[in-house]
Description:
CATH topology of the domain at 4-195: TIM Barrel
Order of helices and strands: EHHEHEHEHHEEEHEHHEHH
Number of strands: 9
Distance between the termini: 38 Å
Helix content: 40-55%
Amino acid sequence: MRVWYFSEMAYHPAWEEGLKRGSLRVVLPNANYDPEIGHRLLNRYLDEFRLCDEVGLDIMVNEHHSTSTCLTISVPMALAVIARETKRARLLSLGNPIANRPDPVRVAEEMAWLDVLSGGRLEMGLVKGAPYEIAPANSNPANLMRRYWEAHDLILKAMSTTDGPFSWEGEFFHYRNVNIWPRPYQQPTPPVWMTGLSPETGRMAAERGHVVGTLLSLSAAGPMFGGRLCSDFGGRGRGIHKPAGLQLARREHRDAQIRRKARRLCSGPPRQPGRPEDRDDRAVARERYLLRRYAG
């Protein structure tokens, strides 16, 4: 079993203001970001990644934009630092939001460079991107999946072609001369990961020999583990990220308990000033969080 340490390098000091505004993503002004605090946080997170390598954990990073929940705004930038400071850990990018990136060939170059820098420790995640980032990326949601698969195919072809330039004339991308340097350390490409919530995504990944990370809930991830799809993964794909699914199933059970508690708090009588629990700041803060998250 492989264990992956994952951090989005969040800027948590802005979360209280984000809760007041109703969102931590996209619409929260960056006036709530203090660069000095951010400097300390980023270096602390990078120290944590280096410690992971020392104790035998693998490392995963992802990429989000216009949000206080994730300061990792560039997977290649973060992994370049981490690759130089680690020696043994596998490095998973989960991943590059290629449906929103304007230049897939640049993604292929960056991932190949990282694979060489790390000595073949890269695991390459090619993901569609989060729905709330469609507006910041100025993407068209109507053609996002077609754009994703074209970018996916172009990236893998660019990384695995070694016999000279090729041209690409697709629906979204046009290149007269594709010939990336360096080529990746792992041939023909590093292992490819995807994220998905549907059996159909799982089948498409299995057909291509990719790893799938399933997220969010057992109700969404459950079909990935059952019946014919599971055998498809065993027969043709690199595998399904079962530990992630099981961990998230436990989290769903825990969150269901939290939701029930929050509903009881919402439906009960208002708290009276002067009660003993009102003097416990941690309990009050926790209940405020529960009410804000689950009152709806």
